[in-house]
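Practice problem 4.
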């Protein structure tokens, strides 16, 4: 009888275990929360299988106006480490800190030479520069070794491997832009400031002061594009496709999709570099 009840207890315990969601089980991994999807690949490349990563801004959401939902606070409460983009993107960070006072918070923009916008605020799109990403990777590495100093060598090796990938793509892009006849590329919203700085280019945004453009501004951009024989405009998934079509037709340019928030960071940067370069060399 006694043996039987032990079996029942074990069976019950197994059943109960099955009902508990995976987040409640200690995973033995470092729980990292970050703001935007491109950061995930950077963090994963250093932390590999030792990290669990939660991204707060969901695909398709507008990161500049995004604020974490109450349902996301649980991931924050369980976080060991928060990797901020920094440069002003997380204007709601104080709220998150109240949920979890113990997590280590790293600002991945630390050490990056920030570009100031006309209102004196930093341009937050730091990740769209491979050179900035090298600095961000170092900050991520510093965060991981603070949480898990025993695995310092593991993180160091991973960091160095990924830095090499970033630098070799940077060298490739540098070479392709060096032979560009033109320097101007037209984008939807001005996310490519740091990218343009790296390769000595000029981005011309279709948006006027972060808003949908007025006819006067749009006329100027179209004029500029014609003068410079612009062959492509780069638009984001959120951009009104009808408006893009009208503008592209006026410029006699083709539309190329470019997502600054793609999760496959390195591949996306390679694609962006290739497409932008094609538009400047042809
Ligand atoms: Zn943006």
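Answer key:
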């Amino acid at each position: 009888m006694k043996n039987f009840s032990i079996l029942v207890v074990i069976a019950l315990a197994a059943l109960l275990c099955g009902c508990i969601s995976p987040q409640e089980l200690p995973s033995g991994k470092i729980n990292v929360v970050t703001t935007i999807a491109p950061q995930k690949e950077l963090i994963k490349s250093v932390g590999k299988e030792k990290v669990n990563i939660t991204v707060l801004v969901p695909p398709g959401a507008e990161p500049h106006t995004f604020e974490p939902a109450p349902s996301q606070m649980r991931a924050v409460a369980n976080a060991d480490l928060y990797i901020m983009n920094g440069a002003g993107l997380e204007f709601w960070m104080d709220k998150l800190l109240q949920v979890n006072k113990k997590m280590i918070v790293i600002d991945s923009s630390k050490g990056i030479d920030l570009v100031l916008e006309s209102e004196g605020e930093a341009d937050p799109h730091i990740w769209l520069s491979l050179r900035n990403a090298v600095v961000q990777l170092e900050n991520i590495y510093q965060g991981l070794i603070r949480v898990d100093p025993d695995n310092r060598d593991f993180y160091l090796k991973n960091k160095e491997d990924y830095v090499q990938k970033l630098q070799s793509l940077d060298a490739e892009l540098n070479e392709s832009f060096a032979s560009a006849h033109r320097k101007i590329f037209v984008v939807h919203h001005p996310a490519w400031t740091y990218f343009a700085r790296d390769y000595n280019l000029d981005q011309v945004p279709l948006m006027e002061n972060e808003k949908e453009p007025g006819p006067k501004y749009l006329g100027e951009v179209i004029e500029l594009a014609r003068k410079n024989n612009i062959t492509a405009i780069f638009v984001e998934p959120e951009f009104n496709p009808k408006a893009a079509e009208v503008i592209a037709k006026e410029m006699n340019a083709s539309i190329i999709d470019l997502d600054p928030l793609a999760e496959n960071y390195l591949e996306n940067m390679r694609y962006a570099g290739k497409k932008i370069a094609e538009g400047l060399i042809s």
